[in-house]
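Researcher: Before we compare anything, I want clean individual predictions. No alignment, no superposition, just each chain on its own. First chain goes here; please echo the sequence and then give the structure tokens.
Model: Echoing the first chain and its structure:
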Amino acid sequence: MALRALLIDDDARLAELLSTYLSDHDVSIEAGRDGPSGLEMLGRGTYDLVLLDVMMPGMDGLEVLRRIRAKSRIPVIMLTARGDEADRVVGLELGADDYVPKPFSPRELLARVRAVLRRAQPEATSERIAIGGVEVDVAARRARVNGEDIDLTGLELDILVALMRRAGRVVPRDALLSEAGRDDVVVSERTVDVHISHLRKKLGDDPRSPARIRTVRGVGYVFVRDDA
């Protein structure tokens, strides 16, 4: 059965190109020409994924992403002509699952779509990790702290899983995204620090008590084991 993707982009030629190419690979495309029309289509349709342009007149893609994330965890891949790292960071922090700079080949986009959907649709076998009051159901992509659900972005969850799988061992900062299975995300070490900071806050790390995620200065991060 074909996957259904919603493209929100004001570039009619790109919509036609992607529709032609992806339809030959079992991905059907429906297109919204701007943010409001795309949100309306998403609200009344059933889609597996959203392809979202950042630079659109009126409501830009980042605002559209904010509104999507207020209601849904549907996978979102951002498309943009911008090459500035700050734009990639904002999109990822708002909950985008991937970021593809224009120009790109339809073949590359298809590979990204498949990778994002593999992460969003877990295998039948499940993995659960529980350390120090933090529990992660990897297959369900669900995290809890002291029995309470916490809302993590896709990248934050992948980073948490990578650290918890290696609890007690230091994960180098420059290798953390690779360990999290996110080689597709290209950001600086400073950006990794920002994601760690957000993750700590969501885990409830208190400066007055021992941290769950400890910084090893000049090296990386370690998730502290129960017996540490």
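Researcher: Okay. Second chain, same rules.
Model: Second chain and its structure:
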Amino acid sequence: MANNDLTKWQLLLSQLDLNLECFCGSNYLKYPHPVSTLNESELEDFVSQQGLIWPKGCLPTLTEAELRDFESQADFILPQGYREFCQVLGAGGFGLRNFFINYPDIDDIEQDLDENKALLESCKDSSLWSNEVKELLDNAYLFGGGGGLIAFVFDLRTYSEQDRSYDIYGIKCDDNFTCHLGRNFFEFIRDICIGDRAQKEFPQLLYGVPSGIDKDDPRYQSTTFILYPIESRFPDEELEEGEIEEEEEDEDFETDYWLT
């Protein structure tokens, strides 16, 4: 990753608060340093101060070699901005049960691609889409989404060497709504996931905070990033010992988070 690209992401991510809710159930555990300094040794030290354990290797960032291996098996190029995001943060959500970004599963690439295809097929079958949207879903890679059956996809038919990217679409799979969100992944994160462009231009993509919830709670802010660790790399014995607790179900929220 070029230094100017890394600096661009660091400046953006320094605006975010990091939520390590995955280590303490429904409690809010805020990482006290700028997200742009994120690395596993710092997280391990911080989590240990809380009396918890950070299993080595569960930070969801990917290396350039891992991304290239995924591309060779998937037979398509990942867009440059998404590659950078995967190397800086990996995977996570912006605000509790809001927009989120997934990383390619480099531990089981074939399964990752099969699940990706199956999710897009379920989206295609859930509504009476036009032929144009069906063709998009047949030629898309699902990289994220949001509550209420929201999918974010790259249109794999639209790659350009000039910007090393694809057209990005938002799809509401239960409401026959599709919108073009641009091509620049950095701008997608900055303006859609963190900023207020979705609220202004695409309110159909938003999943509202339920009534009775404190909207000033930092977990519900778009500038709070909830880290998604690689759960498959958590040792079973640590799960059994309760070192990492599952978030309790909240009856005020829908449970059909299609992509989580």
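Researcher: What stands out in the second chain?
Model: The chain is about 35% helix and 15% strand. Additionally, Residues 136 and 155 are 6 Å apart (CA to CA).
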